Amino acid sequence: MLCTRSVCLRRMARGLWSAQMRFWRFVNNARVTVDTLIEGWSTQTSIAARDRHVLAIQDTSEIKFATTPDDRRGLGKVGKGNVHGVLLHAMMAVDADSGHCLGLAGGQLWTRSGDVKIPHGERALEDRESVRWLATAAQAKAVLAQARMMIVINDREGDIYAHWARTPQHNVHLRSRVMRDHALLQGGTLRQEVARTPCCAKAALDLSRRMDRPARTAHLRLRFGTAVLKRPDKTGATDLPDSVKLSFVEVVEPHPPKGAEPVHWLLLTTHMVGSVADAWRIVASYKQRWIIEQFFRSMKTQGLRIEDSQLQTAEGLLKLVAIAAKAAAIVIQLVQARTGSEQLPAGIAFSADEIEVLDAINKGYGATKLQSNPHRKHTMAWAAWIIARLGGWTGYASHRPPGPVTFHNGLAQFQISALGYACANV
Fold this sequence. Notes:
alpha+beta; 426 residues; 33% helix; globular; 10-stranded mixed beta sheet
C-alpha cells in the first residue's frame, strides 16, 4: 500500500496474478482477524514511547464505500442519508514535546448491523458505541505502559462522564473538548460556572491550514478554573462515583477575520491548572489534535484512497482498512522525520532487510556535501531523506521540503530495490 499509494489489490500486485491472489486470500482468510491486525498496529509504538511524555490522541472517522440498493456489500449505515461503510476509531501516540508521531496505540473497527431498538439512555455502557473512547484508552494504557506520562486527548464525542471517572490514574490524564453542559455538584452547570469566571490573559495562536480553512493567527482570550461534575442519571454503569473534580480552560476568539469561524474551545482536564502558563500548555496540547485529522486524510483522498476499494465483503473491507491505517501512520512518520528534529529509530517503520537496502541506496547519493544525507544513520530521519530522494526530491535543504506524495513516489521506487534485494538473497 505504501509503495503503490493504493489499496487496490490489482495495482498492488503490479500485474502479477499470483500476487493478486495472495493478497485476496490474505484479506479473506478467517485466521486473519481485524482484532489481530489492530494489535499489530502498536508493536513498535510501545518501544518508541518508552520514558516519553506521550499524547494519546483518539478520534473516529467514517469510511464510506460505494454500494447499490441491491448490493450493500454487507455494510451498515454511516453518517447521514443512505450512505454505507465502516467506522474507524484510532488512537495515535505523539511525543508531547516534539509533536512527532510514535505510531498507533489502539483502536476499533466495525460496521453497523442495523438500527438499535433500545434507547441510548437505557443501554448498558458496554452496549453503546461511545464505549470505544474508554476501551481504546484502556488498550493504550497497556501499549504505553513504559511512557513517563500519558495524556488521552479526545474530541467532543469523548466527553463522557464514565470516561472521566474510569480512565485517569497516577500517570494517565484525560483531556477533552466539552460536548455537553454538565451539571455541577454544587448546583448550576459547567457553562454557567465558566461564564462567571473572568478572562485573565490574551495571546496569539497560530492555526495550521486545514481543508476548510487557510492557516492563520487567532488572537485569543483565556480563562480557567475548577468544577466538580455531578454524576448523570443515565451513565449505563453502576460503579461510578457521585462526582469528579476537573479543571476547565476556555479560549475564545472575540474578533475573527471576516468570514472565518471563530475559535472557541472549552476544555476539561484532569490536570490541576494553577497558573496562566499551565492553561496555555493545556491549549497547546489540544492543538496537536490536528495530526489525527491528517492521518485520516492520508487514508482517504490525499493518500491511499481507501474508499475506492472494490472488495465485495464487509469482512474483507474491515481488514483492508486495518492494514491501511498502519500504512497511513508510517507516511505521517516519514513526513515528520524529514526535519531530523526527532531521532526515532528506522526500525519502527522498516524491517532489518529493508534497512540494508536503504544503506545500499544511500551510498549512491552524496556527490557533494550539500547532497549527502545529513542525518544520523539508521534513524527515521535518515530513512526519510533516502525515500524522499527516491521520490524526486533534490536533497537541498533550501528547496521545498518533501510532502506525502513525494514519499509515496519514493516508496514505490524503494519497493523495486527491495524486491531486487529479496531475489538476490533467495
